[in-house]
């Protein structure tokens, strides 16, 4: 019986096949903007709202 585990490697390979370079650049820009905002906006309310947004988007941070 073969394992059908959903791995990070499998998701990266699937994204390489399905996404255009412009979509990848847009996603990278979005992630960079989130990171910049979390890094420099250390006000607790902003930080908590961005943290919750990342979880809602399916990004595990811890």
UniProtKB/TrEMBL annotation:
It comes from the Archaea. The chain crosses the membrane at residues 22-41. It holds the Pfam family CbtB. Keywords: Membrane, Transmembrane, Transmembrane helix. This is Cobalt transporter subunit CbtB. It comes from Haloferax elongans ATCC BAA-1513.
């Amino acid at each position: 019986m073969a394992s059908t585990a959903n791995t990070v490697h499998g998701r990266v390979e699937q994204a390489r096949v399905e996404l255009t370079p412009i979509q990848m650049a847009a996603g990278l820009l979005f992630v960079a903007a989130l990171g910049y905002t979390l890094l420099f906006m250390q006000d607790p309310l902003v930080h908590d709202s961005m943290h919750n947004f990342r979880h809602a988007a399916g990004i595990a941070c811890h």
